Amino acid sequence: MSGKATAGVAILLVAVTTTCLAAVLLGAGTVAIAACTDPAFGPSSSSPTPVAGWSAIGRWNRSQIGNASIIVTVGRQLRVPSRGWVVAVAAAMQESSLTNVGDLGSDNDHDSLGLFQQRPSQGWGNPAQLMDPVYAATQFYTHLLRVPHWQDLPLTEAAQAVQRSATPDSYSIWEGDAIAVVAAVSGLGQAGLTTCGGAGTWTQPVRGPIVSGFRTANRPTHQGVDIGAPRGAVVRAASAGAVVRVRCDIEPVSWGCDRDGHPTLVRGCGWYLDIAHAAGIITRYCHLSTHPLVQEGQTVAAGEPIGIVGSSGHSSGPHLHFETHHGGDRSSAGAEDPVPFMRKRGAPID
User: Which residues form the signal peptide (predicted)?
Assistant: First the structure.
């Protein structure tokens, strides 16, 4: 469900010459491409950092961050592109909460052990090996690098191709945390840890079914589509561009955007942002759970994390309201159906 974003189009913010915008978009894509293709991206390290050497980051304690640093260090030593470090850390967050889990007897999931809950019975190694974080991370990366085009896959699909989990969609909820943790322990900026993509490419902003369409008979003023993604899923820039608006759009203002909205008591997009792309295209992302991960004026690459799925504003539950506009027009007059728009660009959302 979507509320219409507040009017007041700032045309000057998107009236950028084709030459200048193309240069901005090319620069935004360069780092993301390096994260996916350059095995030397990021400084090297000769040995894992001791667990005691790290401080807590968010919900993750010193021991957990230490294990994440080992995973990152092993990735560096194996010359895995930095995007692979994020995949590995997110997988370990889901499998073990970044804890080196030993034999818990009847509480164990089969014979699963270690950071990645790898199983001796499935050929991952013997119990002692799997309890060694360096060995476990090496095994994860070895299998990841065998996955065809893993760099082009959404994180949850890349991780699932290695882990073969009974809950294959669970990895995506940790992507935001994994990016933040990897950025902290590696010294890289978060923009260098996104999915592959650059100027001229398009990608799905989030994965999920279309739960409400564009200007349907029941909702003729619905200027985009609602994608039924789970709370906490990472929202990505659909293409390279420049962030031209970041707002909390809600009425009454006293409700605020840092909590769930309501389908009848409030109006507005909640936390949302607009991105200006080449050729006068603008994309909009609404109902984020918190302030977007980007700022106005920032350039982003295709696939770069820009927010977290939530339910702020005029909303009945977690989802992403996604709009596409043409002609540099962010009003309803410039809106077009995102489904055929994205399909034409090789990134179908239906």
Answer: 1-22
For residue 106, give the 3-state DSSP assignment: helix
- What are the tens digits of pLDDT across the range 37-78? 555 444 444 445 544 578 899 899 999 999 999 999 999 999
Distances (CA, A) of 57 to 62, 128, 184: 8, 29, 8
Q: Return the structure tokens found at 42.
A: 């990021």
Q: Return the domain boundaries, the chain.
A: 11-31+198-344, 42-187
- The rounded distance, in Å, linking the Cα atoms of 303 and 316 is 26
Q: Is the entire prediction scored with pTM above 0.70?
A: no
pLDDT at 30: 47
* Residues 203, 348: Cα–Cα separation, whole Å: 8
Q: Of 322, 294, 292, whose CA–CA distance to 307 is shortest?
A: 292
Instruction: Summarize the confidence of residues 206-211 as an average pLDDT.
Output: 93
- Cβ atoms of residues 288 and 310 within 8 Å: yes
The SS3 of residue 251 is strand
14 token code pair: 């998107």
Query: What values do phi and psi take at 232, rounded to 5?
Result: 95, -10
